[in-house]
Fold these 2 entries.
Entry 1:
Amino acid sequence: MRLSVIGCGYLGAVHAAAMASIGHEVVGIDVDARKISALSRGDAPFYEPGLPEILTAGLATGRLSFTTDMSQASGAKVHFIGVGTPQQKDGYAADLTYVNAAVDGLLPYLSPGDVVAGKSTVPVGTAAELSPRVAATGAALAWNPEFLREGFAVKDTIDPDRLVVGVAPGDDTSADVLREVYAPAVAKGTPFLVTDLATAELVKVAANAFLATKISFINAMAEIAEVTGADVTQLADAIGHDVRIGRRFLGAGIGFGGGCLPKDIRAFSARAEELGRGESVAFLREVDEINLRRRDRAIQLVVDGLDGSVFEKKIAVLGAAFKPYSDDIRDSPALDVAVRLHGLGANVVVTDPEAIDNARRVHPQLTYNPSRDDTIRGADAIILVTEWDEYRRDLTPDHASTLTDGRVIIDGRNGLDATAWRNAGWDYYGMGRP
Ligand code: UDX
């Protein structure tokens, strides 16, 4: 099928390449000429495992192309909207400028029978508002939220755990068209849920609100563990055995960040307020606050570990990305901790396998070093803030001991073997661990 994908960021670029890889003819469209020329050369503008391979393959077959020219969308049967919905500069609500611009820009090129499938995360009610503008062209608007995780985006797009399609009242064709688009996943038995527009929009924000709440729940338990001497990682293991609870997303640490969870829970709160139901999701404010407090705690542990002051102490910060397998630093707890330690007068050196360029652009005041070992060399304290394998799994206390005389390690992701580090003579501090 011929498809267009409007917006070639994390979501759109992956979606375009993934759809080409399952046999569709896809044009990706974005206003950013630099991004389009990179993608047209087969260069992924961000780090995402597996993306360069499907980009190159798609371009080579001729089924995948990228352009800044919106008119190239004409002739496609389905038009995916994958533009960003960032947090507004002066508030919590989502900024819908790009969604509106994408839909308005697309309208002249729509034909009767086309489907416009929104994938961006939007406040509930957005699709119903956009729908008449699309319907006036004879096309239909459906909402098809995206649940991909950065780092697993290609797999999550080609082989999702569910597909959700919201359709307008009386629209009995769009869902079938999208079923055809996702034929390989549908054939595998992937659940395909057809809902109304509002439900589809809500599914996405509800899922992210739940995940954020789960993380903040265990981080709240970490706070209690800290004043009682309990160990939150054992607690998480124990409650996680209950299948109703489950162990995933019970990783206590410096909390969640990224381009989705923080902004989505804030936009959800703002939308609920507008709907007169602010109290229904008032707990999300608490979820946000617990999350932000964990960064304070990590910083406090560094200060305590260094006997009350970090001033002019060398601190090795392992990680800058908001999570491993990503170079994304949006709302990264790791980078926030680094910046604040720098603000306290510490001599901070940050390392990360993928995110240094992005981090340096936003925080040029920090010192960066791509080498893990050089970053650790001579450090008074080490803080692990993004659990890349080279920091969590591969860094042994014996090796670290050869690099520095400092013997303080703060495990911001509870990924290290506390006993091994202590046995090697290190002062180990976890999050919510004795
Ligand atoms: C998230 C959702 O998972 C995805 O479905 C949605 O489409 C977009 O938002 P993503 O932002 O890629 O995906 O990251 P995710 O893997 O969910 O992690 C979010 C943050 O939570 C990271 O900062 C991670 O470090 C943190 N996290 C995750 C924890 O602190 N503890 C955990 O147990 C799990």
Entry 2:
Amino acid sequence: MEKLRHMMNPLDFTVEELESLFDLAGEIERDMEGYSHKCDGKILATCFYEPSTRTRLSFETAMLRLGGKCMGFADASNSSAAKGESVADTIRVISCFADICAMRHPKEGAPMVAASRSSIPVINAGDGGHQHPTQTLTDLLTIRSLYGKLSNFTIGLCGDLKFGRTVHSLINALSRYEGIRFIFISPKELRVPDYITEMLRQKGIHYEEVIKLEEIMPQLDFLYMTRVQKERFFNEEDYIRLRNFYILDKEKMALAKEKMFILHPLPRVNEISVELDDDPRAAYFKQVQYGLYVRMALILTLLNIK
Ligand code: CP
């Protein structure tokens, strides 16, 4: 019997395993029809204790496109969590119904607790300000598709680097590739957490922290913009003060390299002007499409379906 495998963190897969996953995602993109019955009879549960548009619908579409079915909840207030049920008990129940589960939770580590009690694969679909591994798979696949490689880049990460779980996961994942230089662009209140800069120092990976986006634009090979995470702030005053700290517009993009792509995990609030949506370097909606292929590939991999 195959060992039960979960996806809690992008580092759960080796670089070689990620390459295989991305190759499979590429095959799925080229031949969607060929994969349309791979999950016949399988059920995906989506247990979302926090709001989502892309991740939940992308997982559900992925399973439907593979021929499987979906069930779950998008609002924990309609589940027995509202009566005090623990995620450990919930996943034991879900394990009786479904073959695989994608879980989003506001508490860091909650999907990990679920995985430890589960008899089906559990995928962390975002836990608090901690990790968002399938967004990272999406980001890596997008970068690989745009540049044909995942090494030797200068990447700017801009915005809420403190609470942005997509940023934490992406730095973790990219830190395993050669020649990556990180430039962290944030107000001082939203700097990347110390445990991440400590990890980079220990690995000898270049990083710098700046406040002004314009200063470093000409150096970047791509720019990962993020929204200020309103839901993680302790007071509204701070959020209001910081929410429009960065707004990427045509004027700032004029300082960028001709091929500097813009990525964003979405949802966007105000940090990328809509006037850039038609710029050929705006890759954030392409990212969403890649997210579907890579989640299809992940479901097949965790279910051991060839
Ligand atoms: N990128 C992302 O996680 O989007 P949702 O919150 O809409 O799922």
